Each structure stands twice: as structure tokens, then as C-alpha cells.
Amino acid sequence: MKPWSIAKILSLLVLVLLITTACLPTKTPSKPVVIITSPAPGTQVQVGQVITIQATATDKKGVARIELWVDGALAGTASAPGGQALQSFLASFNWTPPSPGSHTIEVKAYNVDGNVSSPAAIILNVTGAVAQATPTPTGPTQPPLQPTTPPPTLGPQLAYLVANTNVNIRSGPGTGYPVLAVLGMGQRAVITGRSADGGWWQIEHPPGSGGRGWVSAAYVTAYNAAGVPIVEAPPLPTSTSTSAPTPTATATPTPTPT
């Protein structure tokens, strides 16, 4: 066989190999699937009305976190409890429409490999104006916390929370611990730990003091909290037997959540 014929055959073999390789199926990275379960698309709400947005994400390897985006801006992050990725993860976000018009609500889910889902999106129609009359709270026995130091500078990786309503700050993770103060609705606090059952957050209290307090996770929204460590609960206070004073009738205020 002539040399030029051998070279021609080798060239054809290389070409066939390249074409075959290009036609092989490419493995697509696994990514989560997320849906918005509430509210329904096109729901009409009022300016200033708190809306609860719920989303469910699934992934065989586990969902690490879900993000809420409003009109193209990140509005909240929910991490899997205890930093343990879940194959099915339900997250809830509270959002208050600041202005009338159509607002785009999106959620995105991330699995343990960092792969992001295709966003799930709905449109909410917001009408009206901010209500002028604000009901006077009947309650806490102590005034909302007014920090004497400036609020902390919250960097992108600092764990913190925002109160969804007035919530009691207690000395331990449970309603059996005494109330230290009240974290007012919309106020922030740095997260320093969490309870073993994930139902309570330990926060820095008072701000910048190095002291600690606990708030119920049911009444706050946490951010960047995936790596927060578990903190052992302090001993419950022991009641001391004392002579009981003669009871007098007093008005009972409406309690602040936990």
C-alpha cells in the first residue's frame, strides 16, 4: 500500500472518531426543582400588607437553601435546618409590598453541589396605599428593645435575623425562661447560636455587649444561618418559695409571641 494511502486512511479514522465523540450524550448536572405553592399567581394584595410566600424544592442529593427574589433583587434566604440538606425542603418568607403595581416574585433553590434550579415565578398585583392608622399594641409588659449602641454592620456572611413581629427575648430557648426584653418588629439581631431542636435562635443581647438572649424561630426570619452552631441551653431558673402576697385584680395585656 502506498504511503499516501495510509495517511489518507488514518485521517479518515481520526475524523470518524471526532464525529463519534461529538455525538456522545453529555451528562447534565443535577439541579433542584422548585415551585411556589402560595400565593397563587395574579393574587391581588394591598400596599403594606404582609404576604407569606411559600415554596417547595426537591433534589435527590438534597436542597441546601432557597432564595426569594422580588423584582430582580434578593429579598431573603432560607437555609436547611441545622445545615443538613433535605431532599424535600419547604420554606416560608414574609414580604411587605412597598408600592402599588405588578411585582415579580421568584424563588431559586440550590442543592449541595451548588447547582441552582430554574426559577419559579409569579406576578402579584399590589393596589392601594400604605394604611395611615396603625393599631396600638396591647401588649408587652416591657417596651421594645431600643439599643444604646448602633446596629451591627451586617456583612454578606454574618448570620442575623429580622423580627417579623414584636418577639420576647428570653434567657434560654423556651417559654419557661424569663423575658429579658422585646425585639421590636423589623429590628435586627446578630445570631450566635441555635437550639438543638432548631426552634430557637441565640442572639447577641444587648447589641455589641457580648451578652446573649434567645428568640423563637417562629417569629423571625434568619439570614446566612446555615453554619450557626448548636448552643447548649442554660439551666431553667429554680423558683424560690416565698410568702404569696394578697392577689389584686389587674388588667392582663395581650402577650407578645414567646
Task: Outline the structure in words.
With 258 residues, the chain is mainly beta. The chain has one helix at residues 3-23; strands at residues 33-38, 44-46, 51-70, 73-79, 86-95, 101-111, 120-127, 160-163, 167-170, 179-183, 188-194, 200-204, 212-216, 220-223. The strands form three sheets. Strands 1, 2, 3, 4, 5, 6 and 7 form a seven-stranded mixed β-sheet that branches.
Strand content: 35-45%
- Which stretches are poorly predicted, pLDDT < 50 over at least 5 residues? 147-151, 246-252
- What oligomeric state do these chains adopt? single chain
Number of domains: 2
**What is the succession of H and E elements?**
HEEEEEEEEEEEEEE
Main features:
258 residues, mainly beta, SH3 type barrels, 7-stranded mixed sheet, 5-stranded antiparallel sheet, 1 helix
Layout: helices, strands, pairs:
Blueprint: H1 3-23, E1 33-38, E2 44-46, E3 51-70, E4 73-79, E5 86-95, E6 101-111, E7 120-127, E8 160-163, E9 167-170, E10 179-183, E11 188-194, E12 200-204, E13 212-216, E14 220-223
Parallel strand pairs: 2-7
Antiparallel strand pairs: 1-3, 3-4, 3-5, 3-6, 6-7, 8-11, 8-14, 9-10, 11-12, 12-13
Short description:
The chain has 258 residues and is mainly β.
